Amino acid sequence: MPDMVSGTSQREKEMKIYNFSAGPAMLPEAVMRKAQAEFIDFQGSGSGILELSHRGKFFQPVIDRAEANVRELLNISDDYAVCFVQGGASMQFAMLAMNLLNGGTADYVDTGVWSNKAAKEAKMFGNVNIVASSRDDKYDHIPAASEWKLTPGAAYMHITSNNTIAGTQYIDLPTAPAGVPLIADMSSDVMSRMFDINKFGMVYAGAQKNIGPAGVALVIIRKDLAARTDESKVPTMLRYSTYINEGSMFNTPPTFAIYILALITDWLKENGGIAAMEQHNNAKAKMLYDFLDESSFYASPVAKADRSRMNVVFRTPSDELDAKFVSEATACGLTQLKGHRLVGGCRASIYNAMPVEGVQALIDFMKKFECANK
Known about the structure:
The protein is of the alpha/beta class and 374 residues long. The protein is 36% helix and 15% strand. The chain has helices at residues 10-14, 29-38, 59-74, 88-100, 113-122, 223-226, 240-245, 255-270, 273-294, 319-331, 356-373, and strands at 18-19, 80-85, 105-110, 127-133, 156-160, 162-163, 168-169, 182-185, 202-206, 217-222, 311-314, 334-335, 346-349. It has a 7-stranded mixed sheet with strand order 2-10-9-8-5-3-4, with helices on both faces. Helix 2 (29-38) packs across helix 8 (255-270) and helix 4 (88-100) runs parallel beside helix 5 (113-122). The longest helix has 22 residues, at 273-294.
Protein backbone atom coordinates (compact mmCIF):
# COMPACT_ATOMS: atom_id res chain seq x y z
CA MET A 1 0.00 0.00 0.00
CA PRO A 2 1.49 3.43 -0.89
CA ASP A 3 2.87 5.57 1.89
CA MET A 4 0.22 8.31 2.36
CA VAL A 5 2.88 10.95 2.99
CA SER A 6 5.45 10.29 0.30
CA GLY A 7 3.28 8.50 -2.25
CA THR A 8 5.86 5.70 -2.55
CA SER A 9 5.45 2.02 -1.75
CA GLN A 10 7.52 0.20 0.88
CA ARG A 11 9.24 -1.70 -1.93
CA GLU A 12 10.27 1.56 -3.61
CA LYS A 13 11.60 2.95 -0.34
CA GLU A 14 13.75 -0.17 0.13
CA MET A 15 14.93 -0.41 -3.48
CA LYS A 16 18.66 0.03 -3.96
CA ILE A 17 19.24 2.87 -6.40
CA TYR A 18 22.29 2.85 -8.67
CA ASN A 19 22.94 6.23 -10.27
CA PHE A 20 24.64 5.96 -13.69
CA SER A 21 24.64 9.72 -14.34
CA ALA A 22 27.52 11.19 -16.35
CA GLY A 23 27.72 14.13 -13.97
CA PRO A 24 27.02 15.37 -11.44
CA ALA A 25 27.63 11.75 -10.63
CA MET A 26 27.34 9.15 -7.92
CA LEU A 27 29.61 9.81 -4.91
CA PRO A 28 30.95 7.20 -2.47
CA GLU A 29 28.33 6.33 0.13
CA ALA A 30 30.89 6.55 2.94
CA VAL A 31 31.71 10.10 1.89
CA MET A 32 28.04 11.10 1.73
CA ARG A 33 27.45 9.71 5.22
CA LYS A 34 30.50 11.51 6.61
CA ALA A 35 29.33 14.78 5.07
CA GLN A 36 25.82 14.19 6.42
CA ALA A 37 27.15 13.69 9.93
CA GLU A 38 29.20 16.91 9.78
CA PHE A 39 26.74 19.01 7.82
CA ILE A 40 25.15 20.85 10.73
CA ASP A 41 28.05 20.79 13.20
CA PHE A 42 31.52 20.61 11.64
CA GLN A 43 34.10 19.38 14.15
CA GLY A 44 32.31 20.88 17.13
CA SER A 45 32.23 24.36 15.64
CA GLY A 46 28.47 24.65 16.08
CA SER A 47 28.16 25.55 12.40
CA GLY A 48 28.07 23.60 9.17
CA ILE A 49 31.00 23.67 6.76
CA LEU A 50 28.85 25.74 4.38
CA GLU A 51 28.61 28.44 7.04
CA LEU A 52 32.25 28.68 8.10
CA SER A 53 34.61 31.38 6.88
CA HIS A 54 37.24 30.32 4.38
CA ARG A 55 39.65 32.48 6.41
CA GLY A 56 38.84 30.77 9.70
CA LYS A 57 40.65 28.05 11.58
CA PHE A 58 38.27 25.28 10.49
CA PHE A 59 38.49 25.59 6.70
CA GLN A 60 42.23 26.09 6.20
CA PRO A 61 43.04 22.51 7.32
CA VAL A 62 40.39 21.25 4.89
CA ILE A 63 41.91 22.88 1.81
CA ASP A 64 45.40 21.97 2.98
CA ARG A 65 44.33 18.33 3.32
CA ALA A 66 42.67 18.36 -0.07
CA GLU A 67 45.88 19.58 -1.71
CA ALA A 68 48.09 17.17 0.25
CA ASN A 69 45.84 14.24 -0.71
CA VAL A 70 45.91 15.19 -4.40
CA ARG A 71 49.69 15.48 -4.31
CA GLU A 72 50.08 12.12 -2.58
CA LEU A 73 47.61 10.22 -4.78
CA LEU A 74 49.04 11.57 -8.05
CA ASN A 75 52.68 11.75 -6.89
CA ILE A 76 52.96 15.47 -7.66
CA SER A 77 56.28 17.22 -7.04
CA ASP A 78 56.82 20.79 -5.88
CA ASP A 79 57.42 21.77 -9.52
CA TYR A 80 53.63 21.77 -9.88
CA ALA A 81 50.95 23.89 -8.27
CA VAL A 82 47.62 22.38 -7.21
CA CYS A 83 44.77 24.87 -7.54
CA PHE A 84 41.03 24.81 -6.90
CA VAL A 85 39.26 27.04 -9.41
CA GLN A 86 35.60 27.94 -9.82
CA GLY A 87 33.91 27.72 -13.21
CA GLY A 88 34.42 24.03 -13.92
CA ALA A 89 36.35 22.59 -16.84
CA SER A 90 34.47 24.76 -19.33
CA MET A 91 36.06 27.91 -17.93
CA GLN A 92 39.45 26.25 -18.35
CA PHE A 93 38.84 26.05 -22.10
CA ALA A 94 39.32 29.83 -22.27
CA MET A 95 41.50 30.35 -19.21
CA LEU A 96 44.33 28.10 -20.36
CA ALA A 97 44.47 29.83 -23.76
CA MET A 98 44.40 33.28 -22.14
CA ASN A 99 47.36 32.31 -19.96
CA LEU A 100 49.44 30.11 -22.23
CA LEU A 101 48.73 30.83 -25.90
CA ASN A 102 50.36 34.29 -26.00
CA GLY A 103 49.72 34.79 -29.72
CA GLY A 104 51.21 31.45 -30.68
CA THR A 105 49.63 28.29 -32.08
CA ALA A 106 48.16 25.51 -29.96
CA ASP A 107 47.55 21.97 -31.18
CA TYR A 108 44.21 20.33 -30.33
CA VAL A 109 43.15 16.73 -30.89
CA ASP A 110 39.40 16.75 -31.60
CA THR A 111 37.92 13.57 -30.15
CA GLY A 112 34.53 14.71 -28.91
CA VAL A 113 32.11 17.49 -28.11
CA TRP A 114 34.15 18.84 -25.20
CA SER A 115 37.48 18.86 -27.05
CA ASN A 116 35.74 20.67 -29.88
CA LYS A 117 34.36 23.27 -27.49
CA ALA A 118 37.80 23.71 -25.93
CA ALA A 119 39.34 24.40 -29.34
CA LYS A 120 36.63 26.94 -30.21
CA GLU A 121 37.25 28.87 -27.01
CA ALA A 122 41.02 28.89 -27.59
CA LYS A 123 40.57 30.36 -31.07
CA MET A 124 39.50 33.64 -29.48
CA PHE A 125 43.01 34.10 -28.07
CA GLY A 126 45.33 32.83 -30.80
CA ASN A 127 45.83 30.25 -33.50
CA VAL A 128 44.47 26.72 -33.11
CA ASN A 129 45.59 23.78 -35.20
CA ILE A 130 43.28 20.75 -35.17
CA VAL A 131 45.93 18.07 -35.54
CA ALA A 132 43.39 15.28 -35.99
CA SER A 133 39.64 14.77 -35.65
CA SER A 134 37.18 11.89 -35.53
CA ARG A 135 34.18 14.22 -35.87
CA ASP A 136 33.23 12.94 -39.33
CA ASP A 137 32.94 9.45 -37.81
CA LYS A 138 30.70 10.67 -34.98
CA TYR A 139 33.67 10.55 -32.62
CA ASP A 140 33.60 6.76 -32.52
CA HIS A 141 37.39 6.45 -32.13
CA ILE A 142 40.57 8.25 -31.11
CA PRO A 143 42.67 9.19 -34.15
CA ALA A 144 45.99 7.34 -34.19
CA ALA A 145 48.90 9.53 -33.06
CA SER A 146 50.75 8.63 -36.26
CA GLU A 147 48.11 10.65 -38.16
CA TRP A 148 48.45 13.85 -36.14
CA LYS A 149 49.69 16.91 -38.03
CA LEU A 150 51.59 18.73 -35.31
CA THR A 151 52.82 22.33 -35.22
CA PRO A 152 56.57 22.70 -34.67
CA GLY A 153 57.12 24.67 -31.48
CA ALA A 154 53.45 24.78 -30.52
CA ALA A 155 52.54 26.76 -27.41
CA TYR A 156 50.96 23.57 -26.08
CA MET A 157 49.15 20.41 -27.18
CA HIS A 158 45.67 19.73 -25.79
CA ILE A 159 43.79 16.45 -25.42
CA THR A 160 40.58 15.35 -23.72
CA SER A 161 41.55 12.09 -22.06
CA ASN A 162 38.03 10.65 -21.82
CA ASN A 163 34.99 11.63 -23.86
CA THR A 164 31.81 11.29 -21.84
CA ILE A 165 29.37 11.75 -24.72
CA ALA A 166 31.06 9.55 -27.33
CA GLY A 167 32.31 6.94 -24.87
CA THR A 168 35.94 6.96 -26.01
CA GLN A 169 39.15 7.23 -24.00
CA TYR A 170 42.90 7.37 -24.54
CA ILE A 171 43.88 3.96 -23.21
CA ASP A 172 47.53 4.98 -23.66
CA LEU A 173 48.04 8.68 -23.00
CA PRO A 174 50.13 10.37 -25.70
CA THR A 175 53.46 12.16 -25.38
CA ALA A 176 53.91 15.68 -26.69
CA PRO A 177 56.93 16.65 -28.81
CA ALA A 178 59.97 17.83 -26.88
CA GLY A 179 59.47 21.31 -25.51
CA VAL A 180 55.71 21.33 -26.09
CA PRO A 181 53.62 21.19 -22.90
CA LEU A 182 50.91 18.54 -22.96
CA ILE A 183 47.61 19.79 -21.52
CA ALA A 184 44.80 17.37 -20.65
CA ASP A 185 41.16 17.82 -19.76
CA MET A 186 40.76 14.85 -17.41
CA SER A 187 37.36 15.79 -16.07
CA SER A 188 35.84 12.34 -16.42
CA ASP A 189 38.77 10.05 -15.63
CA VAL A 190 41.09 11.87 -13.24
CA MET A 191 42.00 9.63 -10.29
CA SER A 192 40.39 6.65 -12.01
CA ARG A 193 43.69 5.27 -13.29
CA MET A 194 47.42 5.67 -12.93
CA PHE A 195 49.29 8.21 -15.04
CA ASP A 196 52.57 10.10 -14.86
CA ILE A 197 51.88 13.74 -14.09
CA ASN A 198 55.40 14.61 -15.25
CA LYS A 199 54.32 13.98 -18.87
CA PHE A 200 52.01 16.99 -18.59
CA GLY A 201 52.42 20.71 -18.36
CA MET A 202 48.90 20.97 -16.99
CA VAL A 203 45.95 18.76 -16.13
CA TYR A 204 42.53 20.10 -15.30
CA ALA A 205 39.29 18.43 -14.27
CA GLY A 206 35.79 19.42 -13.32
CA ALA A 207 35.19 17.63 -10.04
CA GLN A 208 31.66 16.36 -10.66
CA LYS A 209 32.55 12.95 -12.10
CA ASN A 210 35.09 11.22 -9.85
CA ILE A 211 36.33 13.63 -7.22
CA GLY A 212 33.51 15.79 -5.92
CA PRO A 213 30.38 17.83 -6.63
CA ALA A 214 29.95 20.49 -9.30
CA GLY A 215 31.41 23.89 -8.55
CA VAL A 216 35.17 23.41 -8.57
CA ALA A 217 37.83 22.46 -11.08
CA LEU A 218 41.08 20.85 -10.02
CA VAL A 219 44.02 22.42 -11.88
CA ILE A 220 47.50 20.94 -11.66
CA ILE A 221 49.98 23.15 -13.51
CA ARG A 222 53.74 23.29 -13.79
CA LYS A 223 54.84 26.49 -12.07
CA ASP A 224 57.23 27.55 -14.82
CA LEU A 225 54.38 27.22 -17.33
CA ALA A 226 52.11 29.44 -15.25
CA ALA A 227 54.87 32.07 -15.24
CA ARG A 228 54.50 32.51 -19.03
CA THR A 229 51.30 34.53 -18.63
CA ASP A 230 51.33 38.16 -19.72
CA GLU A 231 49.52 39.41 -16.63
CA SER A 232 48.87 42.81 -18.18
CA LYS A 233 46.42 41.14 -20.59
CA VAL A 234 44.65 38.66 -18.30
CA PRO A 235 42.10 39.60 -15.60
CA THR A 236 43.17 38.82 -12.05
CA MET A 237 40.70 36.01 -11.45
CA LEU A 238 41.65 34.32 -14.72
CA ARG A 239 45.40 34.13 -14.03
CA TYR A 240 46.86 30.88 -12.74
CA SER A 241 49.37 32.92 -10.77
CA THR A 242 46.55 34.38 -8.70
CA TYR A 243 45.52 30.92 -7.49
CA ILE A 244 49.11 29.82 -6.97
CA ASN A 245 50.17 32.90 -5.02
CA GLU A 246 47.01 33.04 -2.90
CA GLY A 247 46.56 29.33 -2.17
CA SER A 248 43.32 29.27 -4.20
CA MET A 249 41.85 31.81 -1.78
CA PHE A 250 42.20 35.20 -3.48
CA ASN A 251 38.41 35.33 -3.18
CA THR A 252 35.96 33.04 -1.43
CA PRO A 253 36.53 29.58 -2.91
CA PRO A 254 33.80 26.92 -3.32
CA THR A 255 34.32 25.67 0.22
CA PHE A 256 31.79 22.84 0.25
CA ALA A 257 33.05 21.40 -3.05
CA ILE A 258 36.63 21.47 -1.76
CA TYR A 259 35.50 19.84 1.50
CA ILE A 260 33.85 16.97 -0.42
CA LEU A 261 36.96 16.63 -2.59
CA ALA A 262 39.01 16.29 0.59
CA LEU A 263 36.67 13.55 1.84
CA ILE A 264 36.77 11.69 -1.48
CA THR A 265 40.56 11.78 -1.62
CA ASP A 266 40.58 10.52 1.99
CA TRP A 267 38.36 7.67 0.79
CA LEU A 268 40.66 6.91 -2.13
CA LYS A 269 43.66 6.68 0.19
CA GLU A 270 41.76 4.42 2.57
CA ASN A 271 40.84 2.09 -0.29
CA GLY A 272 44.24 1.45 -1.82
CA GLY A 273 44.80 4.61 -3.82
CA ILE A 274 44.71 5.06 -7.58
CA ALA A 275 46.25 1.70 -8.46
CA ALA A 276 43.51 -0.17 -6.60
CA MET A 277 40.85 2.09 -8.12
CA GLU A 278 42.16 1.38 -11.62
CA GLN A 279 41.82 -2.38 -11.04
CA HIS A 280 38.29 -1.82 -9.72
CA ASN A 281 37.32 0.28 -12.75
CA ASN A 282 38.88 -2.09 -15.27
CA ALA A 283 36.97 -5.01 -13.76
CA LYS A 284 33.64 -3.16 -13.95
CA ALA A 285 34.20 -2.07 -17.54
CA LYS A 286 35.23 -5.57 -18.61
CA MET A 287 32.07 -7.04 -17.13
CA LEU A 288 29.85 -4.67 -19.07
CA TYR A 289 31.73 -4.76 -22.37
CA ASP A 290 31.98 -8.56 -22.28
CA PHE A 291 28.21 -8.73 -21.95
CA LEU A 292 27.68 -6.23 -24.78
CA ASP A 293 30.02 -8.18 -27.06
CA GLU A 294 28.18 -11.43 -26.38
CA SER A 295 24.76 -9.90 -27.04
CA SER A 296 23.08 -9.81 -30.44
CA PHE A 297 20.53 -7.29 -29.11
CA TYR A 298 22.75 -4.47 -27.81
CA ALA A 299 25.50 -2.73 -29.76
CA SER A 300 28.32 -0.35 -28.88
CA PRO A 301 29.25 2.22 -31.57
CA VAL A 302 32.77 2.73 -30.19
CA ALA A 303 35.96 1.23 -31.64
CA LYS A 304 37.03 -1.54 -29.25
CA ALA A 305 40.55 -0.19 -28.90
CA ASP A 306 39.25 3.17 -27.66
CA ARG A 307 36.37 2.19 -25.38
CA SER A 308 35.96 4.32 -22.30
CA ARG A 309 36.19 2.62 -18.93
CA MET A 310 34.15 5.46 -17.45
CA ASN A 311 31.25 5.98 -19.87
CA VAL A 312 29.86 2.91 -21.63
CA VAL A 313 27.58 3.90 -24.50
CA PHE A 314 25.30 1.38 -26.19
CA ARG A 315 22.08 1.04 -28.12
CA THR A 316 19.18 -1.37 -28.46
CA PRO A 317 17.80 -2.17 -31.95
CA SER A 318 15.68 1.02 -32.12
CA ASP A 319 15.15 4.46 -30.65
CA GLU A 320 11.80 3.29 -29.29
CA LEU A 321 13.43 0.41 -27.46
CA ASP A 322 16.14 2.73 -26.16
CA ALA A 323 13.43 4.88 -24.55
CA LYS A 324 11.66 1.83 -23.17
CA PHE A 325 14.93 0.49 -21.79
CA VAL A 326 15.66 3.72 -19.93
CA SER A 327 12.12 3.91 -18.53
CA GLU A 328 12.01 0.34 -17.30
CA ALA A 329 15.55 0.46 -15.92
CA THR A 330 14.64 3.56 -13.92
CA ALA A 331 11.65 1.74 -12.44
CA CYS A 332 14.06 -0.98 -11.32
CA GLY A 333 16.38 1.46 -9.56
CA LEU A 334 18.92 1.85 -12.38
CA THR A 335 18.78 5.58 -13.02
CA GLN A 336 20.24 8.14 -15.46
CA LEU A 337 20.91 5.68 -18.28
CA LYS A 338 19.66 7.91 -21.09
CA GLY A 339 22.37 8.81 -23.61
CA HIS A 340 23.43 12.41 -24.10
CA ARG A 341 20.85 14.52 -25.92
CA LEU A 342 23.25 15.06 -28.85
CA VAL A 343 23.67 11.36 -29.64
CA GLY A 344 20.77 9.48 -28.05
CA GLY A 345 20.99 5.81 -27.16
CA CYS A 346 21.97 4.70 -23.67
CA ARG A 347 24.96 5.42 -21.47
CA ALA A 348 26.17 3.87 -18.23
CA SER A 349 28.69 6.04 -16.40
CA ILE A 350 30.62 3.81 -14.03
CA TYR A 351 32.96 6.18 -12.24
CA ASN A 352 34.99 5.38 -9.12
CA ALA A 353 32.00 5.38 -6.76
CA MET A 354 29.97 2.85 -8.77
CA PRO A 355 30.31 -0.55 -7.05
CA VAL A 356 30.64 -3.84 -8.91
CA GLU A 357 27.19 -4.71 -7.58
CA GLY A 358 25.72 -1.81 -9.52
CA VAL A 359 27.22 -2.98 -12.79
CA GLN A 360 26.04 -6.53 -12.13
CA ALA A 361 22.53 -5.24 -11.41
CA LEU A 362 22.60 -3.42 -14.74
CA ILE A 363 23.75 -6.51 -16.62
CA ASP A 364 21.05 -8.63 -14.96
CA PHE A 365 18.41 -6.11 -16.05
CA MET A 366 19.83 -5.94 -19.58
CA LYS A 367 19.53 -9.71 -19.88
CA LYS A 368 15.87 -9.65 -18.83
CA PHE A 369 15.08 -6.73 -21.11
CA GLU A 370 16.70 -8.47 -24.07
CA CYS A 371 14.70 -11.66 -23.48
CA ALA A 372 11.46 -9.69 -23.23
CA ASN A 373 12.03 -7.52 -26.31
CA LYS A 374 13.75 -9.66 -28.91
